[in-house]
UniProtKB/TrEMBL annotation, chain A:
Name by which UniProt lists this protein: Succinate dehydrogenase/fumarate reductase iron-sulfur subunit
Keyword Protease applies: no
Taxonomic lineage of the native organism: Bacteria, Bacillati, Actinomycetota, Actinomycetes, Glycomycetales
MF terms (GO), sorted A to Z: 2 iron, 2 sulfur cluster binding; 4 iron, 4 sulfur cluster binding; electron transfer activity; metal ion binding; oxidoreductase activity
Cofactor: [3Fe-4S] cluster; [2Fe-2S] cluster; [4Fe-4S] cluster
Presence of keyword Oxidoreductase: yes
Cellular component, GO annotation: plasma membrane
One GO biological process term: tricarboxylic acid cycle
Family per record: Belongs to the succinate dehydrogenase/fumarate reductase iron-sulfur protein family.
Tree of life domain: Bacteria
Boundaries of every 2Fe-2S ferredoxin-type domain copy: 4-93
Pfam family for this entry, one: Fer4_8
Organism expressing this protein natively: Glycomyces terrestris
Pathway(s) of this molecule: Carbohydrate metabolism; tricarboxylic acid cycle
From TrEMBL, chain B:
Cited InterPro entries: FAD-dep_OxRdtase_2_FAD-bd (IPR003953), FAD/NAD-bd_sf (IPR036188), Fum_R/Succ_DH_flav-like_C_sf (IPR037099), Fum_Rdtase/Succ_DH_flav-like_C (IPR015939), SdhA/FrdA/AprA (IPR030664), Succ_DH/fumarate_Rdtase_cat_sf (IPR027477)
Binding site for FAD: 19-24, 42-57, 231, 416, 431-432
Name of the protein described by the UniProt record: Fumarate reductase/succinate dehydrogenase flavoprotein subunit
Binding, substrate: 252, 268, 391, 426
Active site (record annotation): 325 (proton acceptor)
Coiled-coil regions, chain positions: 488-522
Gene Ontology molecular function terms on file: steroid dehydrogenase activity, acting on the CH-CH group of donors
Organism: Glycomyces terrestris
Alphabetically ordered keywords of this record: Coiled coil, FAD, Flavoprotein, Oxidoreductase
UniProt keyword annotation of tRNA processing present: no
Residue ranges of domain FAD-dependent oxidoreductase 2 FAD-binding in the record: 14-432
Domain annotation Fumarate reductase/succinate dehydrogenase flavoprotein-like C-terminal: ranges: 487-597
Cofactor: FAD
């Protein structure tokens, strides 16, 4: 056991500041264990959102020493013994209180996109799909909706003005999931991602992939294929090829 | 703070669903499809409910992997698992309807793992005779929640397209219900607060579905999240409904015991279904020593046969690691007590030495990932240290099997908060199917009730009283809620845990009685906006009431059955098999009474060999089948 210094942001929409806590830390603990100890022993009204404490529900998202993380999956042995641990609420969303933010942006965006469209000619029990085909979508359904990708994405992180037209990586993988669903009856998922969700704002910096606690390859497996296919469909392939050749021709000159 | 109720948010709907896990969401879908306006109250954010923690799968006799499976076999397994204390009609409906409820999810967009011919794949699980659990790797619960969450959104979109207002189907998240309003034996609404602002709300509704899950937070070592404070159980009691079987609590045999960051967290039974074995500190695979007489026909008594079963289940008996959960939990407990446990008080669960790393990662991806990330433990390289953790309560609101209705008019219950379906012990995989089957039924019959009932009117007096109750912890001068919670958990863990005896249960009741005034006087500091200390202060009285119900019933039932083991009364007693213990609230006092377990029909009795029935029942009870056999 050792005593560590935690700096926890406390406040609300009006403003706030860091509160410092010296707190006991035991071997094998994670940041959320320590936040709970602060709550139980020093600050009973410290607001923190959590549920499963097992990395499965995606509730305890925060920024730990500046990195967007799940507090339940941030082991204390990742920090130097003397290093203070600083916890702040997610920056992209409005603060409710202390470490809790208002993440309703993400639910509103989910409300706006068309859900799964069942095939008209199949009754329940008649669905047949191959494992290899469902696996592509299953990768995206691993998402625990921690919204760390949404929080990290620079399109909205410091750009409130981009929030209305931009749904963010969480919803791009949802679009990709439905696009790749073997039996989804809609065929406009990619166009909708481009036109309704603001896929075009993404310039593939992969920040979302880096923070995903489920290690979903958001950029490589969802966003890039969606962009490519939109591009492929939007522009006539012969014209595209012509352009490419034309450019090649021009290059040496 | 003022007594005025002018700031209380007023809402009304046809069907109020309290709880947004699998059962609540499935109920909401059904009630909305029946044309009713629905409000779903979610204690946490939408989509975070404890259902996401379910790993193994949803049991449904679709027969996709073994064509011999059918509802009768599933029914039989469920009754065996529950040691014949189940409400047989619930078990029957459950086994019959589970396949339809699973197939339906595919039409909502669920993507289960597949068989080679493209059907939903099914896996083996403890107590199930055939591979039966529809699954998605080991994150089946998440798939269920996400699928139902997305189905609700699609219904909201349908409403919008049809020009309906948004009040037809609302999900109100981060909100806790503290009281139900009842008039002349019928529910009429509920009172609660929004966590974010602390603002109160009163909802008028002629029909209410309780889907609040379990009580596990009252135990120190638990797989349950903070939400599991027995809210629905306590709300039902205070509304006048009865609870049954509260003594039966399932301790999942394999919770992590080390390191502390993951203490209590489950290691899915699939680890054992896919080849993992339990060993004590001497390296002995000890489960062969713990096969009860009633299971000897189905479980292998030697490692050779057990190991052949994984590839040839038709010609070999199952490994004893796959015995029902209560048997495995008791075996682990015995090994530890006999001094053959690990350094941290568990036993070893070893799959690393029995399967390749690639196989483990493919079959148990989220298990592998979870322990690597949470605890720096690599399950492909080293054994896990596991032991029993409080996991599930079989007991709950007494409901009608067909309609999920409680004894209070307009009040329904589904999922873990309801009782009867699982008898004295639940089989793994039966909870996800349970919440779909009875969630649907609760939504359906709640909607039907709402259709013939007038919108109730809530009085200012009852709202003011509920508000005063909720504000009581502020400035009470009492104790810190976290300390009281720890004290409550310590009593349950020490005296009402997996192995019980009369004098310890009496001691528990004395200690719980001593805690009662301290909890009534609990203090909250700070303001009302997102104040977890206040939230816990309000949850504590529910946790306390459920703890008393469990301790009282556990003391009364002097036999051992399923999730209730009495060291001073070992073995099952056929007389107790016919008895349910029913808990009601009489003023402030919790009172117990005895009630007959519903007797199975001759047709259902006929699904079992008389030799098997004789292990559980008195001759008079199974006589009817003998007559038929002859």
């Amino acid at each position: 056991m050792s005593t560590r210094t935690f700096r926890v942001w406390r406040g609300d929409a009006e403003g706030g500041d860091f509160a410092e806590f010296d707190v006991a830390v035991n071997e094998g603990e994670v940041v959320l264990d320590v936040v709970h100890r602060i709550q139980a022993e020093q600050a009973p009204d410290l607001a923190v959102r959590w549920n499963c404490k097992a990395g499965k529900c995606g509730s305890c998202s925060a920024e730990v020493n500046g990195m967007p993380r799940l507090m339940c999956m941030t082991r204390m042995n990742a920090f130097e013994e003397r290093e203070p641990v600083t916890i702040t609420p997610l920056r992209t969303f409005p603060v409710v209180r202390d470490l809790v933010t208002d993440v309703s942006f993400n639910y509103e965006k989910a409300r706006q996109m068309p859900q799964f469209a069942p095939p008209a000619d199949l009754k329940p029990g008649e669905y047949r799909m191959q494992q290899v085909d469902v696996e592509r979508s299953q990768e995206f359904r691993k998402c625990i909706e921690c919204f760390l990708c949404q929080n990290t994405c620079h399109v909205v992180r410091d750009h409130e003005e981009n929030k209305p037209p931009f749904s963010g990586p969480r919803l791009f993988i949802r679009a990709a999931e439905l696009d790749m669903h073997p039996l989804d009856a809609r065929d406009d998922r990619r166009e909708a991602a481009q036109d309704e969700q603001g896929l075009g704002y993404c310039n593939i910096t992969k920040c979302c992939t880096e923070v995903c606690p489920e290690h979903i390859k958001i950029t490589d497996n969802a966003i890039i294929p969606m962009k490519e296919r939109v591009a492929g469909d939007r522009y006539d392939p012969l014209v595209w090829l012509g352009r490419k050749i034309f450019r090649k021709d021009k290059k040496p000159a | 703070m003022s007594d005025s109720t002018t700031d209380v948010e007023r809402l009304a709907c046809d069907v109020l669903v309290i709880g947004a896990g699998g059962a609540g969401l499935r109920a909401a879908v059904e009630a909305r499809l029946a044309g009713k306006s629905v409000i779903v109250i979610s204690k946490s954010l939408f989509g975070k409910a404890h259902t996401v923690m379910a790993e193994g799968g949803a049991a449904a006799a679709m027969g996709n992997v073994n064509a011999n499976d059918n509802w009768q076999v599933h029914f039989r397994d469920t009754m065996r698992g529950g040691k014949f204390l189940n409400n047989y009609r619930m078990a029957e409906i459950h086994a019959q309807e589970a396949p339809d409820r699973i197939w339906e999810l595919e039409t909502y967009g669920a993507l289960f793992d597949r068989t080679a011919d493209g059907r939903i794949s099914q896996r083996n699980f403890g107590g199930h005779e055939y591979p039966r659990l529809a699954h998605v790797g080991d994150r089946t619960g998440l798939e269920l929640i996400r699928t139902l969450q997305q189905k609700l959104v699609s219904l909201q979109q349908d409403d919008e397209a049809a020009g309906e207002g948004p009040d037809k189907l609302q999900v109100i998240d981060e909100t806790t219900i503290t009281e139900l309003f009842v008039e002349q034996g019928a529910v009429k609404g509920a009172f609660g607060y929004r966590r974010g602002t602390g603002r109160f709300m009163a909802v008028s509704a002629p029909a209410i579905v309780l889907a609040t899950g379990g009580i596990g937070r009252s135990f120190k070592v638990t797989s349950n999240s903070w939400e599991y404070t027995g809210d629905g159980h306590a709300l039902a009691l205070r509304a006048g409904a009865s609870l049954i079987n509260m003594e039966f609590i399932q301790f999942h045999p394999t919770g992590m015991v080390w390191p502390p960051s993951v203490r209590g967290i489950l290691v899915t039974e699939s680890v054992r279904g896919d080849g993992g074995v339990l060993k004590n500190s001497e390296g002995r695979r000890f489960m062969f020593d713990y096969i009860p007489e009633v299971f000897k026909a189905q479980y292998a008594d030697n490692p050779e046969e057990a190991d052949r079963w994984y590839t040839d289940p038709d010609h070999n008996r199952r490994p004893p690691e796959l015995l029902p959960r209560d048997e495995v939990a008791r075996a682990i407990n015995s090994e530890v007590k006999a001094g053959r446990g690990t350094e941290h008080g568990g036993v070893y669960l070893d799959i690393a030495s029995r399967r390749s790393a690639e196989y483990i990662i493919e079959r148990l991806p989220s298990m592998h990932h979870q322990f690597k990330e949470l605890a720096d433990v690599d399950i492909t390289a080293e054994p896990m240290e596991v032991g029993p953790t409080c996991h599930y309560i079989m007991g709950g609101v007494e409901v009608d099997a067909e309609t999920a209705a409680s004894s209070v008019t307009g009040l329904y219950a589904a999922g873990e908060v309801s009782g009867g379906m699982h008898g004295s012990n639940r089989l793994g995989g039966n909870s996800l199917s349970d919440l779909l089957v009875f969630g649907k039924r609760a939504g359906e019959f709640a909607a039907e009730h709402a259709a013939v009932t007038e919108q109730p009117v809530l009085s200012e007096d009852e709202i003011a009283a509920a508000q005063a109750d909720a504000l009581r912890p502020f400035g009470s001068g009492g104790e810190n809620p976290y300390e009281l919670q720890a004290a409550l958990q310590a009593v349950n863990g020490r005296l009402v845990g997996i192995i019980r005896k009369a004098e310890e249960l009496e001691e528990a009741l004395t200690e719980l009685e001593a805690l009662r005034p301290r909890i009534a006087n609990v203090a909250a500091t700070g303001g009302r906006a997102y104040n977890p200390g206040w939230h816990l202060a309000l949850d504590l009285r529910n946790m306390h009431l459920c703890s008393v119900a469990t301790a009282k019933a556990a003391l009364e039932r002097d036999e051992s059955r399923g999730g209730h083991t009495r060291e001073d009364a070992p073995g099952m007693d056929p007389a107790w098999r016919r008895v349910n213990l029913v808990a009601r609230l009489d003023g402030e006092e919790l009172v117990l009474s005895r009630q007959d377990v519903p007797a199975m029909t001759p047709e259902l009795l006929g699904l079992f060999d008389t030799s098997e029935l004789a292990k559980y029942m008195t001759p008079e009870e199974y006589r009817s089948t003998e007559a038929e056999d002859a």
